Amino acid sequence: MAAAWKKTTAPVTSLDHDELKHDMVLLGLACMMDPPRPEAITAIDECQQAGIRVKMITGDHQETAMAIGQMLGIGNSHAAITGYQLEHMSDAELAEAAKTYDIFARTSPEHKLRLVKALEASGEIVGMTGDGVNDAPALKQANVGIAMGIKGTEVTKEAADMILADDNFATIAAAVKEGRRVYDNLKKTILFIMPTNLAQGLLIIIAILMGNLLPLTPVQILWMNMATSATLSFGLAFEPAEANAMRRPPRNVKAHVMDGYAIWRVVFVGLLISISAFVLEAWLQPRGYSAEFIRTVLLQMLVTAQWAYMLNCRNGNGFSLDRGLLKNRGIWLVTLVLIVLQAIIIYVPLMNTLFGTRPLPINYWLISLIVSVAIFIVVEIEKRLTRSWRNKTASLR
C-alpha cells in the first residue's frame, strides 16, 4: 500500500480523484506478505520426487504468482500463463498449455474447470484443492477433489472427495505416502497368501494322484489357514512405507496387481514350499514314524515356512532383514501368537485328539526352522535375480 500527502491552501471538505492527480508527495510503501509455509515447500518437493506435478491456479497477478511459485519450488515457475490467454485458446491448445505450464494467473472458475478437464483428457490423474464456492465445479470434476476443512465453504466440502482438517498442503503429501504404503502392503499380503495356499493345494492334489499318505488332514489345513492367514498377513499390515515410496513414479491405475511377475512368484514359491514338504515327508517315512507324527512335523514345517516367506514379502526389492523389521512390532506380536498357537496344537492332549497331532521333540522344531531358512534364502536370491525384470515391468505400467 502506498501512502502520500498533499499540501492544500484551503480546508478540504470533499476528496475526489481529480485532486489526487498532481502535487502528491510519496511518504512510503507498506508491504504485506503471506509467505509459504516451510512444510509446504518440503511437501511440494516430495510430491515432485514422487512423480506428482504440482500446478498453481490462482487469481493473483502473473508476476506475483510466478514469485510465489519460485518460493514454493514449483517446477516450471519461471513462466506463467494468464486466464485471458486461456480464453483465446482452442481445446487442443489449452490441453498443450495445461501440460506445459505450472503457473496459471488471473484465472476464473471457468478456467480452473477447463484446465482440470484438459488434464484429464490427456490421461492425467488430477487432484484439485480449493476453499471457495468458485472452486466447487473444478473440485467436482477432478479425480480427487480436496477441500480445506478450516477455510473451506460448505459447498466446497460437499463437492470434494477429501477434506483437509488442517488446511495444510503437507497433509496431501503425507496422504500420498500413506496411500502408497497401504497399496504396497495389500500387494505384499496377496503375494503372501496366494503362494502358500497354492502349496497346500499342491500337497493334497499330488498326494492323492500318487496314492501317498495325505500330508495334512482337512481339519489340520483349516487350522493352518486360521493360524497363519489370521496372524502373519496381519503383521504385514503394520509394515512401514518402503524407503523409495516417495521417490518412484505413480503406478498405472489400469495395471493389475497380479502382473506377470506376481504370477511367477505365486507359482515359484508355491512349488518351492510344496517340494520342500514332500522332501521332508520322504525323509521321515522310512524311519518308521506314525502317520500322525509325520503330519505334525509337516504342519509345523509349513507354518514355519509361511512365517519365513512372510519375512520375504516385507520388502519387494531389497533384503528383507533390514532395520524396518525391528520397528514393525506387529510382526513380532503375530510371531509370538503363532508360536503359542502351534505349541497348543502340538502339546495339549485335547488338541492332539481333535486335530490328530502328536507332541514333537524340540529338534523337529529346529528341522522345520532350517528348512524355512533355506526357503527364505532361495526367495531372497530369486528377488535379486529377477530385479531387472520387475523394474522393467514397473516402467511399462
Structure description:
- This protein is mainly alpha-helical.
- Helices cover 59% and strands 7% of the residues.
- It contains 17 helices and eight strands.
- It has a three-stranded parallel β-sheet.
- Helix 8 packs across helix 11 (260-284).
- The chain is elongated.
- The two termini are 52 Å apart.
- The model has no long low-confidence stretch (mean pLDDT 89).
Provide the helix percentage: 55-70%
Give the count of helical stretches. 17
Distance between the termini: 52 Å
Uncertain ranges: none
List the helices and strands in order.
EEHEHEHHEHEHEHEHHHHHHHHHH
Mean pLDDT: 89
Q: Could you tell me the radius of gyration in angstroms?
A: 32 Å
How would a crystallographer describe the biggest sheet? 3 strands, parallel
Q: What is the percentage of strand-forming residues?
A: 5-15%
- Record the strand order, biggest sheet: 3-5-4
Taken from the alpha-carbon principal axes, the silhouette is elongated
Highlighted features:
7% strand, single chain, 397 residues, mainly alpha, 59% helix, 8 strands, three-stranded parallel sheet
Topology:
Layout: E1 2-5, E2 25-29, H1 38-49, E3 56-57, H2 62-72, E4 81-82, H3 83-87, H4 91-100, E5 103-105, H5 109-121, E6 127-130, H6 136-141, E7 144-148, H7 154-159, E8 162-164, H8 169-210, H9 218-229, H10 232-236, H11 260-284, H12 291-312, H13 323-327, H14 329-347, H15 349-355, H16 362-385, H17 387-395
Parallel strand pairs: 3-5, 4-5, 6-7, 7-8
Antiparallel strand pairs: 1-2
